[in-house]
Input
Amino acid sequence: MYLTQGLHRVLQQRPDAVATVFGQRRTSFSLLVDRVARLAGALSKLGVSGGDRIALLAQNSDRSVECLLAAWWLGAVTCPLNTRWSAPEIAYALKDCGVRVLVVDDAFASLVPELKALAPELGPVIHAGEQATPEGLLAWEDLIAAGESREDARPAGDALAAILYTGGTTGTPKGVMLSHANFWISSVARMAEVPNQVQAVTLLVAPLFHVAGLGRLVSQLVTGSTSVLLPAFRAETVLATLQDERVTDVVLVPSMLQMLLDHPSFPSCDLRHLDRIIHGASPISPGLLERAMKALPNCGFQSAYGMTETAATACSNGPYRWSEGTTLGPQALAAGRVCYGNEVRVVDADGREVPSNTVGEITIRGANVMQGYWNKPAETRAALRGGWLFTGDGGFMDNAGYVHIVDRVKDMIISGGENVYSAEVEGALSRHPAVAACAVIGVPSTAWGEAVHAVVVLRPGETVSAEALRAHCRSALAGYKCPKTIEFREALPLSPAGKVLKTVLREPFWGSSARQIN
Output
């Protein structure tokens, strides 16, 4: 169960198959393995050995894939860093996990002097960009050309494969420790239910520092399928790539899907070969899913529920395809049923399992669950209890085993003593034809403790009043759940993974208060 295992298999069966596509470069699996083995040899000469950490601060590219694979080939640990972090946040991660080598691309090469000042113990820095290598950095292609091919270390399944940093909105980020087995088991278990076809052409536009992007790359390596890489999400570029590369599979967060559907060039794109969209990272609204299914009737829509701590997917749902008269019931909009290799139960505040259809905290157990948080034993003990991962997600399981997410536990709004789940209110708002996107938060209220507040982005050319939206909500929800106030914005603040940053939305109302509840 080591993550380079798929490379050896595809070398025996289809060595000339295309492994990666990046811009004009098309790399076969045989060439990829040769470059990875040489890069591993070069890293070894720089002093990197098994268990050492190699940080990657770069956008998606074929060289980013080579970096990850070379680390695993050597038995080292990859640390893909959030490309939207500030220099102090990046330096924190570099120091926290004791990085031996840092790899940067053109977008971040200019940041190296500041990072070295903030983290003076930082070792060699490798430039993996397309432009000329800056002075003081090591050139990617020179290292590979001079590197001596090294044998694959084939680390054991429980060997640490990656440290993925998560959180950071309250306190310092946590480094999630994921082993080779965590990734491999998660990928293979998912594919037992949701096959990853060998001939599939998958677009990797979700960042590789996020578990959705990295987890999908692992699946591509297991099956020996083609990965098309884009450095960042740009709706126009994504649509052109989906069409020109005849992409069959893509992983998107709902906000990305929304932007594709809204783009002016969407109606003219030929996407008939797109067979499956896997959506996750945040719940999809019923309005958006219905719209997407109707716009792409040949495509199956599959939801994936999981988190960094579960090496991606723990529950899945679908795929669902459009047909006339299609209506999405509660189960179609659920996170889904538990995947093979996982167990899920819903518990109360004391950790006791609750009956079906009762809201509590979702907990997960399985061989895909993380080893813990790097250098954070207290946080590890809080998250891993009695063999179960406490996710922080509030939800329930129905009588058919479908897991329904209602909110983050910490995001639940308590208004007038009643529990209000923002996802439910967002679902109602999203069904209004004028609404493109929305987010619901709790804001301070002297009368109710907290009041339901909605932030709404309208579809291009649409207008609607706050009162009309409240009336729309009242037709589907109890009065206490309907937004007391509504504000309109041009866009919602998003994380690099496409999740709505509710902490940013709350800031004007709650300020710096650590206790964001009344």
Notes: The chain is about 30% helix and 25% strand.
